[in-house]
Amino acid sequence: MNHSNYYNAQIETATRSQLEEIQSQRLAKQIRRVYDNVAPYRAKMDAAGVSPDDIKSVHDLHRLPFTEKQDLRNNYPYGMFAVPMSEVVRIHASSGTTGKQTVVGYTKADIDLWAECAARSLMNIGGTKHDFVQVAYGYGLFTGGLGMHYGSEKLGATTIPASSGNSLRQLEMFRDFETTIICLTPSYAVSLIELMAQRGISKDEFALKAGLFGAEPWTEEMRAQIERGLGIKAYDIYGLSEILGPSVSCECTAQCGMHICEDHFVPEIIDPDTFEVLPAGETGELVFTCITKEAFPLIRYRTRDIARLDYSVCECGRTLVRMMKPQGRTDDMLIVKGVNVFPSQIESALLGFDPNATQYQIHVDKGDYLEVRIEMYDDMFRDSVGSIEEYRRKMGEEITSAISVKASVRFDEKGEQARSQGKAQRVFDKR
Ligand code: DLL
Asked: Does 263 sit in the ligand 1 pocket, CB within 6 Å?
C-alpha cells in the first residue's frame, strides 16, 4: 500500500473495528456535548427517554431521535448551535425550495476538519500540490465555493477562486492559468461545454485532467458526456450544508461510489416510511450523525437523499464506506399517475438515447401529464436519430419504458431554456 496516495492513511485505510472504536468514542462524547448545550436536543432525548449515558458505541445510535429540516426551521437561525456565537467563525446558509433558509455554523476547528475532508476529496482523485484547482462553485452562503477553496489550499494546490458565472472568463482561466482540476456542478459543466462549441474553443487548448462535480444529482450518462466534452475524468462529490458542505463523501479514481469521511460523519440508511434502519447494501434514506463538529453537530439528520452503502474494501485500498450515487431526493421524487419517478431516471433514458440532449426540462401539468422538453442543437436530426417525428416517438418510448408512466417529448428552440451556473432546475411541476 502506498501511503502517499492518501491524505490521512491511518483513517482512510483503518479496519472496520478500528473505525468503529474511533466512532464510538467520538459519538459518546458528542452526545454528552449536545445534551448539555443544545436545548432542542435535550428536549428530544428526554422525550424519547434516552440519556447520554445510554450511548456508548455506534451500535447505540439507533436509540437516538432523528433530526429533520423542520427542527432547523423551528430553531432558526442559531437555536441548534452547540457553542456560544463567539466561537463561531463562519456561517453558511441554504435556501432550499420551501420555507426559511437553513443556517449552519462552524468553529475554527470545524473549518479545519472541513478543509481536511475537501483535501482528501482532491487527493482521492489524484490531486497534489502541483495542481491548479479552479473552484467554479458559487462563493457566498452556498458551501460549494469556500468549501473546496479551503480544501485546495490545505492540499497545497494553486487555488483559483473563480466562483460560478462569467462563463467565457472561466474558459479563459482554464487555458491561461493552466487549470488541471475543476470543481463545479455537472449542469454548469454542460453549459461550459456548449459555450466551447459556440466559440470554437477546443478542449485541447486546456491542461485539464479531472473535475469534482456535485451539488445536484447527475447520471453515468451525464458523466460520459462531461468526460468526452472536456477530455477529463469526471468524479462525483457529495455533501450538504447541514452536515458540512462538499466532501462529506467523494469518489476515488476507481469511480465506484463515494467514500464517506466516516471518522466525522456516521451514515445510516433508513426506510423513510417506517424509520427502521436497513441492513448494509439496501437502498433507502441516508441519515448522518456528526461526531466531531463543534458548532452545528446534527444527530441522525435525515438528508432525504436516497442512496445505498457498500462496506467492501475499494480497489483504491480505502476502507471508508462508499455511498453509491444518490438516486435523488425524496422531495424531488415525482408521483405521476401514482408512479414514483426520479428525474435521474429520465436523464439516464434521455442521454442513453441521445447523449447530446443535455439541455432538458421535465414538466408535469395539472392533469398528471409528463412532458420532457428537449432543447434542439445543431445537426440534431442529421445522424442516427432520424427525423424529428421518429426521434420524438422513439425518445418518448425510451423514457416511458424507463419510468413506467407515459412521457411525451417536446422540442424547444435552441437557447430557449435557462442555462445553469449552479444547481440546474430540471423539474417544473405545475400541479
Ligand atoms: O450542494 C454541497 C455541495 C457543494 C456538494 C458542492 C457537492 C459539491 P446543499 O446546497 O445544502 O449543499 O445541497 C445539498 O444537494 O442533500 C443532495 O440532495 C444534493 N447533492 C449534493 N451533492 C450531490 C451529488 C451542497 N454528488 C443537497 N449527487 C444534497 C446528487 C447531490 N445529489
From this structure: no
Atom of ligand 1 nearest to the CA of 325: 28
Ligand 1 pocket, 187 CB below 6 A?
Answer: no
**Dihedral over Cα of 111, 112, 117, 118: its sign:** positive
Question: Could you give the CA distance from residue 300 to residue 222 in angstroms, rounded to a whole number?
Answer: 31
The 10s digit of each residue's pLDDT in 55-68 is 999 999 999 999 99
DSSP letter assigned to residue 327:
-
Tens of pLDDT along 7-25?
999 999 999 999 999 999 9
Can you tell me which residue has the cell 440534431?
380
Question: 219: how many CB neighbours lie within 10 A of its CB?
Answer: 21
Q: Do β-strands 360-364 and 370-375 pair in parallel, antiparallel, or remain unpaired?
A: antiparallel
Q: Is the CB of 127 under 6 A from ligand 1?
A: no
How many whole angstroms from 213 Cα to the centroid of ligand 1?
Answer: 10
pTM metric for this prediction? 0.97
Q: Is the CB of 164 under 6 A from ligand 1?
A: no
- Measured between alpha carbons, how far is 74 from 87 in angstroms, rounded to an integer? 22
Our CA angle for 156, 157, 163, nearest 5°, is 120
Per-residue pLDDT reduced to its tens digit, 363-393: 999 999 999 999 999 888 876 567 899 999 9
Instruction: Say which DSSP state 67 is in.
Output: B
- Mutation probe of ligand 1 site: the residue of 92, 238, 251, 327 with most atoms within 8 A of C-beta: 238
User: For residue 185, how far is its CA from the centre of ligand 1 (angstroms)?
Assistant: 9
